[in-house]
Amino acid sequence: MLIKNLSREDVSKAMQYVKETHIQAWEQIDSYEPRKYDLYFDGYLYSPSLIIYYAYGLAYREELIPAPDCFAEVEANQLLINLGFEILERKAKRNLIKYETYNREEIHDIFDPYTVFFSGSWGMHRMIKIPDREHDYVFLVTLGIKSHLSEDGILTWQSPNKLFKNEHIQNLINHNHLIDNIYLFLTNNSKPPFKFVYLGRLAYVSHDIEMENPVYFKWQILDWDVSNDILEAIGLKLINPRVNPPEEHVQIVESNPPEKQSIILRGACSERFNSQNINFAECEVKNRELGLKGELFVLEYEKQTLAKAGYHHLAEHILHTAYIEGDGAGYDIKSITTDRNVKYIEVKTTKGGKTTPFMISSNEVAFSKRYAANYYLYRVFDFNKDTGRGKFYIIHGDVSKQFDLEATQYRAKR
After folding, report:
1. Is residue 248 over pLDDT 50?
2. Is residue 185 classed exposed, middle or buried when 0-12, 13-18 and 19+ CB atoms within 10 A define those classes?
3. Are the beta carbons of 346 and 375 closer than 8 angstroms?
């Protein structure tokens, strides 16, 4: 297409406009024929055809042409070179895939694709804020004395030397994984060249309120499903967080429910921070094996309870509804009390501690309201699916009156 005369100033205005409006997201549009070159200016990379497109429209105040790719890339490149701009051959960019290995430049290219990689934040720092995303970060962590990773996917991490009141540290303390993202890349290498393995996104667990410079955090890796084969391939060694293993003769231990907190406080003192059980495992709701073993755990408990009370014949009437029908019934187990009243039991199982958040569906909440007199939530925690041992407490009645429920998904319609 014939391009009218454009000045360097016209091109500069177009770059400023594209930068301010983040309009380069149009790259998704031209994905049918990815461009081969970038316009480089002042640390940023631009699509040559896109810049000519906006320079043309802004300079002549005419109705913009139908699409940026109406300008041939070769034609746009030549015009920009004639105006004294630098054109660079474009590098192939990688996608983000769990358990694959990346160097710092490749990580930069994923999260900050419109700038050139330098030895600044992306080349040196261990905690990097993602541009134009208010509370999103990338962690580049070296395992060692200051950071370690447990078998349960809990990362104990020391922040860079920033004061407790620093804006970024406060963002981390108030991190909500349902809204914001922290991406974890890990390496065992203490010397370059550094190769980082991407392990997934993080959720806040706790921080040490007695340590303010630096601050010590615990994070849960979401959807932690790494296999031994992957651990061996990437050379990752994990620690066992269970200091005191469960006693061999104890299978099922009932405890009291935790006190409901009227004020949510974040953080823990040093002693509790270092010894506290895992306090976050929402992602385990996706682990069907864990859920099934938790249900079998409760099923066995119900049978034992009736048998000890002398009602062996009633134990035969206990049904594992979730196994027979699937998850749509609103409860997992249909049991019976010693006075022959029905018990609808919902089982929620996590490897984490007593106060670990768990997921519950709208169907399950509605069922607990409708059949409150006969509804029992068995909250299984500190559960070891390999040994079948754990602890639990029981909540009777409408769960909406017993827990603070937070919406995590919406159904949209018009």
Report:
1. no
2. buried
3. yes
Q: How confident is the model at residue 341 (pLDDT cuts 50, 70, 90)?
A: very high
pLDDT digits (tens, 9 = 90+) for 192-218: 667 899 999 999 988 888 777 788 899
Give whole-number Cα distances, 327 to 226, 282, 283, 346, 348, in Å. Answer: 26, 18, 17, 10, 13
- Measured CA to CA, the distance from residue 220 to residue 151 in angstroms comes to 11
What mean pLDDT comes out for the span 335-355?
Answer: 89
Q: Give me the pLDDT at residue 225, please.
A: 77
- Residue 104: closest CA among 136, 128, 135: 128
Q: Tell me if 43 sits within 8 A of 79, measured CB to CB.
A: no
Count of CB atoms situated within 10 Å of the CB of 321 = 20
- Residue 164 to residue 213: CA distance in whole angstroms: 6
pLDDT at 50: 83
Could you tell me which residues come within 8 angstroms of residue 96 by beta carbon, excluding any fewer than 6 positions away?
110, 183, 198
Q: Domain 101-234 is of which CATH architecture?
A: Roll (2.30)
At 49 the three-state DSSP class reads: helix
Q: Is the pTM of this model over 0.85?
A: no
Is the Cα dihedral 82, 85, 89, 94 positive or negative? negative
Contacts of 407 (CB under 8 A, 6+ apart): none
Does a cis peptide bond (omega within 30 degrees of 0) precede residue 214? yes
Asked whether the predicted pLDDT for residue 138 surpasses 90, the reply is: yes
Q: What average pLDDT does range 12-31 have in this prediction?
A: 67
Count Cβ atoms within 10 A of the Cβ of residue 108 and give its class: 0-12 exposed, 13-18 middle, 19 or more buried. Answer: buried
Q: Break the chain into its structural domains and give their ranges.
A: 8-89, 101-234, 270-401
Take residue 157 and report the two structure tokens written for it. Answer: 């991490």
Q: Which amino acid is at 338?
A: T
